């Protein structure tokens, strides 16, 4: 069921009306797309129905009503069950799975969609529900370029910074995890630092007034680190691992002296010490990729 270059807005279906699914349906309704919704708990559709959405009684009815079927549920297992319920009704349609999952689960859901005759894209939304559809909102997509291009006007409604990152439907999941992993690393590192400062009675605002430029500079190093990792070249002109070691040890001892949790600096010290023992004392910090990649 492929319709290109038509003036009539594509009818869409949204399966799952949690916080994000309801926001997805709201974006399409606001853009004038006929929107059919379904949720295990029918009451969750009431606000959308009041806004013009059509509520389907069954998954198959919902799928039949839309050319593009968006799935936003709590787990990969739940998404798979919905596709199994839809069965042959998916034939000729496109499934866009927005469910959080692992990369392997995204691929498996894509396989189930293909078995039912549907095209498949996986989308990883990188914003909170209220910001969905904003010009700066990011959505990573994975799947066939032809499928993405066919539905690009519809997909762009979800975020102005949407992009197809790979033909592999698991890739956007890894993109999302990479962003979140970096985020949690930064947040945990900052809050550990905040605990030390608070113990001394130093206001964080005052700290940021003085240290802001240094913290901002940290993210500017990411492109060079990425280049070193991609090329597997870790030689350092300055800032070698052996020069990190004393500072890490100081941070660990300071944390312990102030009864601040030492898990982060202790693990960092363990990894860096191991890398130095393995003969990498003069390498850049990017060498540590080898120790995170170890199994």
Mean pLDDT: 94
Number of strands: 8
What is the highest CATH level, the class of the largest domain? Alpha Beta
Separation, N- and C-terminal Cα atoms = 45 Å
Class based on secondary structure composition and strand pairing: alpha/beta
Kindly give the count of domains.
2
Shape annotation: elongated
Strand order of the largest sheet: 3-2-1-4-5-6-7-8
In N-to-C order, the SSE pattern is EHEHEHEHEHEEHHEHHHHHH
Strand content: 5-15%
According to CATH, the homologous superfamily of the largest domain is NAD(P)-binding Rossmann-like Domain
Note poorly predicted spans: 1-5
In the CATH classification, which architecture of the largest domain applies?
Answer: 3-Layer(aba) Sandwich
Q: Which SSEs are present, and which pair or pack?
A:
Elements: E1 12-15, H1 19-30, E2 35-38, H2 46-50, E3 54-55, H3 59-65, E4 68-71, H4 76-86, E5 94-97, H5 103-115, E6 119-125, E7 139-143, H6 145-150, H7 152-156, E8 163-166, H8 171-200, H9 204-220, H10 222-231, H11 241-257, H12 263-277, H13 289-293
Parallel strand pairs: 1-2, 1-4, 2-3, 4-5, 5-6, 7-8
Antiparallel strand pairs: 6-7
Helix pairs in contact: 4-5, 11-12
Domain 6-phosphogluconate dehydrogenase NADP-binding: 12-160
Domain NADPH-dependent reductive aminase-like C-terminal: 168-292
Family: Belongs to the HIBADH-related family.
Short description:
The protein is α/β, with parallel strands linked by helices and 295 residues long. 52% of the residues lie in helices and 12% in strands. Strand 4 (68-71), helix 4 and strand 5 form a beta-alpha-beta unit.
């Amino acid at each position: 069921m492929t319709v290109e270059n038509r003036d009539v807005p594509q009818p869409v279906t949204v399966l799952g009306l949690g916080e994000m699914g309801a926001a997805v349906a709201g974006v399409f309704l606001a853009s004038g797309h006929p929107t059919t919704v379904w949720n295990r708990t029918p009451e969750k559709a009431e606000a959308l129905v009041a806004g013009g959405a059509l509520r389907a009684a069954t998954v198959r009815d919902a799928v039949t009503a839309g050319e593009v079927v968006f799935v936003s549920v709590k787990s990969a297992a739940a998404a798979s069950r919905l596709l199994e319920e839809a069965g042959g009704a998916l034939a000729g349609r496109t499934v866009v799975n927005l469910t959080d999952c692992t990369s392997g689960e995204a691929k498996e859901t894509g396989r189930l969609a293909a078995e039912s005759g549907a095209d498949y894209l996986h989308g990883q939304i990188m914003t909170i529900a209220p910001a969905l559809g904003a010009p700066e909102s990011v959505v990573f997509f994975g799947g066939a370029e032809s499928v993405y291009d066919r539905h690009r006007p519809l997909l762009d409604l979800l975020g102005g910074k949407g992009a197809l990152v790979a033909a592999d439907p698991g890739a956007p999941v890894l993109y999302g995890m990479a962003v979140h992993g970096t985020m949690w690393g930064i947040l945990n590192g900052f809050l550990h630092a905040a605990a030390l400062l608070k113990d001394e009675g130093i206001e964080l605002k005052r700290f940021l007034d003085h240290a802001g430029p240094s913290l901002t500079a940290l993210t500017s190093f990411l492109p060079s680190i990425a280049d070193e990792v991609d090329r597997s070249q870790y030689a350092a002109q300055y800032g070698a691992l052996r020069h990190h070691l004393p500072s890490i040890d100081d941070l660990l001892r300071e944390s312990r002296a102030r009864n601040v949790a030492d898990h982060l600096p202790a693990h960092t010290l363990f990894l860096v010490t191991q890398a130095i023992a393995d003969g990498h004392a003069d390498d850049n910090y990017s060498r540590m990729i080898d120790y995170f990649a170890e199994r």
